[in-house]
Amino acid sequence: MNFCQKLPLFFAYLSLICIASCSTIKLDKQDVMATLTPEFWEQQQNEIEHPSFTWRDFEDSKLKELTELALTNNPDIYSIVLAIQSADLATKEQEANNGINYNIEARTGINKTRKDDKQTNYALNANTSYEIDFWNKKTDKLAIAELNVLSQKILLKTARISLTSSIAETYFTVRLQDKQLDFQRATLTELEHQKEMLLARKKAGIITSLEINNQDVEIQTVKARIEDLTSQRIVSELTLGNLLGLPPHQFSLAPRANFIFPAQLLTAETPSQVLRHRPDIQLAEAKLQSAYKTFDLTRKSLYPNITLTANSGFASNALSDLLKNNALNWTLGADIIYTLLDTGTRERNIQQAKINAELQLNDYRKVILNALKDVESALASQASGKRQLDIAKLRLKAQQRLTFETQERYKYGSVSAFNVSIQKRILISEQENLLQQQLTNVRSSILLLKALGVDPEEV
Fold it and tell me: For the whole model, what pTM was predicted?
């Protein structure tokens, strides 16, 4: 039997060795999305209108300007962009490794024998090798590299959403603080006006100095509140500048007259839509797929590596004879590398890869459950905020009528100017409560946008 007849038997024997040595460790892949999405939740959400909306639906030109600046200037965003570029290069490197390798080698040297004879050698070789991907090892490595790129892009999306929500919340907080400062200043004016009236009543002997002292305490309290709000606004402005990636001396946000908070953005979506948009779900999916691929790749370590090689070149003891025909040599062959015994290292690696995959599967479950909880909480907060806003509007409307009636009664002498001043103070307080509730509802909208995984760059 010649070599060509023995070759099929050799490969058959090698295949039997591979099959006999294959690991018995298996990994069951599960569809967690289908098992964890509650049917009643989907039915409940389908009964609600769910118009889509984005961050730009807040309809604030200044907020839009700040958000666009932050998305291009924030250092955390830029770090992730660089990480994506690095992952892209790693993927390209893996793609290059999947091709044919070419090498050119030039050598020269001196050999010395025991008789002190020296011999000079010259060689010029070209080598070519290609690893046959029988077991899709290269494909799996490339898939893992591509999943790493995808993970980095999902992290970028997560950072964009987090940054945009922080900017929006801080921006609207500053606007509320401006309004609160206006209300507190108006309250201080009313308190000082009341003090003048109290002084006149004390002079007439109607009240004692105790009421004057109490009024002074209220005035000092409001002044302290104004100072605190001013300090809080400075801190909020510094926070906003930091989110934009700007030093304090390069950023300031001027108060805006007649600022109106945007309306509450109500929406709902089905669970499948929610889960597919959220970046934490997408990242968990990518990590899970990478863990599955890593497990498959680790199991394939039991299979041999087969590489085709070819090289040709010139070798001679004299440089002048190096490129002559009689100096030409070439080889063509195949390398088969297989480890028979490794004291169980590969089995342990496979077991470890399975454990890692199961950990990723468990993390995937947790992320889905948290996503459902976040959306439910955001929708509940939206519904509660809408009810509280309706109540705040009713309270304000009632106080406006009471203040108007008190002013009318004052015209006819039925009440004193002191009573009018008190009602004005209460009216200012109700207006401030309404604005506070509007900010709470805006925050609920921001929370819902985050829960739905709405990307600020997806318009």
Answer: 0.79
